[in-house]
Structure formats: structure tokens, C-alpha cells
Amino acid sequence: MILVTGATGSTGRQLVSQLRERGAAFRALVRDEAKGRALGAEYAVGDFEDRASLAAAMDGVERVFLASPGAQAEAPGGEQPMIRWERNAIDAAKAAGVRYVVKLSVLDAKVGGPMSAGGHGATEAYLKESGMEWTMLQPGGFMQNFLDPAASLADEDGNLLGTAEDARVAFIDCYDIAACAAVLLTGEVGRGAALPLTGPEAISYQEVAAELTRAWGRPVGYRVVSEEAIAKRLRGFGLEAGLAEELASLYAGIGEGRYSAVTDAVRDLTGRGPRSFEQFMAAHPEAFPGLAIRD
Prior knowledge:
Layout lengths: L1 E3 L5 H13 L3 E5 L2 H7 L3 E3 L5 H7 L5 E4 L14 H15 L4 E5 L10 H14 L4 E7 L20 E3 L5 E2 L4 H13 L7 E4 L5 E2 H12 L5 E3 L2 H10 L4 H15 L9 H6 L6 H6 L13
Parallel strand pairs: 1-2, 1-4, 2-3, 4-5, 5-6, 6-9, 7-11
Antiparallel strand pairs: 8-10
């Protein structure tokens, strides 16, 4: 039995679908019962803060996909909630006799790193010390960030923002992350590996803007601004100052090419290449209505 945590998230929903297609025995962990019913699969209602619910969800489980809400501002004690949540899940898994955990992490995860890199680094280290077998999936930028215009970092006119003229990212579709997780959870490969996952190419924000212009049916540009300007924009969205500065530093890293390297991990695991940005958009016609209109 496989337990899928984060089952209603961008990757979790894809993984539920792909495990169903494989005929795998699995259970989805959800916080909302209505969302669990909507999955059309076996589910357990629980919460990362509720150790008893995690223990109940782990009953009879041998393998776990571990994914939790992303990095948040540090608590007054200095620790991101995500670290506590994932440690709770790891403790519950170990107590239940789980043998193997596939953790959804991030590229460049490391103890003491900034924001998500530090949070995931801390839980990666905790998982490695648990005695269970593990694999770390380490994607960089998600294509899903562009599904909703409101979710993309943009200025008042809808232009994407970045800190360098040629800011390139090897964005990956969550569909491909889920495909890798499905292979790992239903097979015997990849134990003890940290796998950086990327799409097929590093694309620039100018190229993304051009695709979005076509897909959304309105002009989308790209503006180069300072890291401080990005932090200010994020604070304007209501983010706490420290978190806004951390996120802005990630955009600066994009400008430095930190997330532009392309890997073969998706192909090596699944036997096929990852989706391109154009293929990703074609898979979401509801989000990109302009694609139905061709010149």
C-alpha cells in the first residue's frame, strides 16, 4: 500500500491519477473530506499537525510519497512549519513500519539554506537519519506557476518580473514529477538518490512571456527590475517582509542562472522525455484559451 500525502496539490493530484492508471494500491491523505471524495480513490482525512491522524493514515502502508505545503515564514522560534509537518509524517511512517519514502523536495536543498532550500534540506537530513529507504525528488521551477495570471510575479500591467535580461529556468511540469514518483513508488529503483528534475530545456522569461501572450490573448512582457523592487512588489501582495526578501533572492538566483541546468532524470526514470512548455500549455486548455485560436 502506498500513501500519497499532499494528494490534492499540483503534483499529488497528478500522482493519484497515474497510480490509478497503473492499478497500484494507494491511499490519499487529505485535509478536506469533500476533496478526498472528489479524488475517486481510497482516502484518509488527516493533518500534518495531528499525529494521531497521520498514524491512522499510515496503517498498512509500506511506501509513502511525502509532500507538504511549501516554505512559509519562520515561526517565532526560527523554524519553518514545513519542517515540523514533515518530521511528524516521517515519525509516523517509521512507527508504522513504512519501508520507503519518496520525498518531494527542491533543487539545491541543504541544511541552513534560504527558505525552501533550507526547510527541505532539514527534512531531507531527518529522513536520511530515519533508517527508512528514501529518494529525494528535487525539481526547480514549476510550469504550474503560470496556470493562473494572478499566481505569476508580474507588475501592474501584467508583465513578468525578473532581475536579469536573460533569466532562464528549466521549468518542469508537475505531471513529470508525478511520473517519476509513480515509477519509484511502484518499483525498486532509485533508492538513496537525490534526483534533480527539470524540463527538456531552459527557457527565458521572454520566451515564457511570448507563449503567455498567445495563450492568454493579451500582451505579456518581461521587465528587468532590482531584487529590492521584487521584494517590494511581494510585500505589496501581503507577504511578510522577511519572506518577501527570501523570495526575491530566489529571483536573483534565477538571474544568475542557478536554475538553468537541464538533467536527464525524467527520461532515465520514465523512459520518455519531459513535457515542453508548449506541451504543458496544450494539456491545460482551460487556463490557456488563446491556444485554440491559430493564425
